[in-house]
Amino acid sequence: MIGIRGRAGIELAVTSLVVPMSVALGAAPAQAASCNVTTGPYQKQVEKFLGRPVDGKQSSADCKAVKAFQAKHGITPTQGYAGPLTWRTMSTMQAQKAAGKNPNKDRKCPTNKGRIACVDLTRQLSWIQDGAKLKYGPVPVRTGRDGAETRTGAKKIYWRNINHWSTLYHVSMPYAQFFDGGQAFHSVTKSMWNPPGSAGCVNMTQKDAKAYWSLLRNGDDVYVYGRKPGT
Question: Among this protein's residues, is 170 annotated catalytic?
């Protein structure tokens, strides 16, 4: 499924002269379309993540580095501003890296179900385990946007279609494995951090969706927990 750009998924560049509204939205002040030279609210954090000198002040080089990151991951407007969505994306990446090969360290995903696909909305991670043994992953995923969240709880895969076409969204959903109404694992070609998210499905890269297709079957358990940042 595809996401729809909305308030949860873009860093708004506000041109209004009403300063309190701009601050409330965490929006970038109006700048030339090429690059935003304003110091953002997450400047130091973003500089550190990108390996830039950490001084908390926007420079031309900072702007170019942030802009390249935004362009790669679909963050708009792509102007190099160190705003909330850019930092949220980076902090999610850090949480994913910290998970390493032990994503279920806190045992939030059941270990008494045998083979199960786990989805952690908070870290935007998924993996397959058999009991407590990790079988595949963890891998980054792209879940439902604000207002169309991926539903939490215990599920089961009930229908699979390797070349599914969504008649609702008119989009291809390769390696689709449905586990809750119209919500499914399936592959997409966009970045897993592309905001604001899907319409409820758990998006994956083609490589990971193909692996899930090979490892899972109808009747296998799925457990979704947590809360996606920004929802």
Answer: no
